[in-house]
Structure formats: C-alpha cells, structure tokens
Amino acid sequence: MEKHNNHLKDFPFGSDHPVTLLDTSGGLSLGALPGLEEFGQAIPKILPGLDGLICSPGQLRRLSSTTVSGTKLFVRMDWTNILRDANFPLPPHTPVHLSILDPQDAVALAASGMVVDLLLGYEDAIEAHCLKLIVQLALAGRELELPLIVEVRTSGPNVAAMDKAIELGASLAQEGGADTIIVSNPGLDSLKNIAAMLTVPWLLKPSSAKTDLTDCEAAFDLGAAGIWLDHTWLATYLPINELVRQLNTLAQANR
C-alpha cells in the first residue's frame, strides 16, 4: 500500500503562529450543530484563519478540496455519548465509547490525521477501551504516516482532582503513542508540569467562549502549539476569525 503523505511533520506546528483547530465532529453525538445545519455551505465562512478542522466521517465526505484549500482535515475515529446532558432528547444513562473507523477508512477519506478521545473518570472499562484504541491507532498510523491526535476528557464523575487528572491523561496519551495531545486548562502549576512532561506537540482547549486570552498566553509561554476549539464555540456564534487574529498578535508579542 502506498504510504499516506500527511504525517505531522507536514502539519504547521513549526509555523510562525499558534495553530487553531476547530472540532465540528460533536454532531456525531448531538446531531447537526448550531450554524452548521448546511455544513458544506457554512464551513467556508469560518475557515479563514483555521489551520485544521476536525470532522465526522459524514462531514468530511461533504467537503470539497476547493472548499478547504489550505486547511488540514482530521477525522473523528470514535463515538461517545458523554457530550449529551440531561436536557438532550436521549439523555445518556450509561457512558459509552466506540471505535467507528479504522485507519484505512481515514486514508480513504483523505484525512490528514485521526482524532480520538481519552475518557477519564468513568468506569475502568471505558478508560481501558480508550487506551487500547489509542495504542492500536498509533501503531497503524505510524505505518500509514497518519498522525493521531488524542483529546483528554476528564469529565467523568469519579475525578477527584481535576488538575491531576488532566496531567495523568496527558501522560497516558503520550505513553499510548499520541502524536499530539489536547488538554483543558488545569491551572498554571499543572500546565507547567504538562509542558515539562510532554515530548509531543500539545494544544490548549479553552474552557469556554467566555475565557479571555490570559490562559492562552500562559500556554504559549510554556510551548503550546496552539489552541483547540470545540462545538460549544459554534453555539456562541463567536467570530472565530477575530479570535485567531488576537492569538496571532499574542504569539508575535511573546516571541
């Protein structure tokens, strides 16, 4: 099989600005996201300034190469119901995590890389399934030159210390073979520990659209490769291009 030519070495982590990735794959659990009901028409309006877009398999099939020229496309490889809350029409009673694609599917979709969750704070079987999937995808991705991004989610009810759980998640993701790791802000002290521990690129996931740029500035100072925005930012209709402009200005000032 011809090797895929989209390894992380080609991803713009070495660029002169922090990368900004937007995850729109939440629709896999939540249905069509606010503002993205007509996905193929809505995406061009928010693409300028984005370095990468995380899509569900269905979303990825609806995008053309001209629509996303210059933006890396990553595909969500797993499914979980933990994004649903008590107000969802089908509220979850038991947390579930499933693999929905294999690496060959990602290649067939012409994805630049794969994205999976590491869910912590749930029953042991959930964590074990996540770790097994990470290891398997990392090994296959190395052969196919297809990078693996792991998003650490410490939203389970059994988390006793959020900062330590995020640190643990980052460590487990790296041990499992992740090429890039996404972490929420655990506080400055823990962020320093994460930065010192990780030998792969990492991105900060701001807590909400109300978060100011202070957290991002601290992360950039510690070597973060950029930020990761999830579906909650879309719900605010936040001008993402303006956020990217501010982040680029911030990165220039910190050099």
Explain this structure to me?
With 255 residues, this protein is an alpha/beta fold. The protein contains ten helices and ten strands. The chain has helices spanning 27-30, 39-46, 57-61, 103-108, 124-144, 162-176, 188-197, 214-221, 231-235, 240-253, and strands spanning 19-23, 52-55, 72-76, 78-80, 97-99, 113-119, 148-153, 180-184, 202-205, 226-229. Strand 6 (113-119), helix 5 and strand 7 form a beta-alpha-beta unit. Helix 6 runs parallel beside helix 7 (188-197). Mean pLDDT is 86; it is low at 1-9.
What is the structure about, briefly put?
The chain is of the alpha/beta class and 255 residues long. It has 10 helices and 10 strands.
List the helices and strands and how they pair.
Elements (H helix, E strand, L loop, with lengths): L18 E5 L3 H4 L8 H8 L5 E4 L1 H5 L10 E5 L1 E3 L16 E3 L3 H6 L4 E7 L4 H21 L3 E6 L8 H15 L3 E5 L3 H10 L4 E4 L8 H8 L4 E4 L1 H5 L4 H14 L2
Helix pairs in contact: 6-7
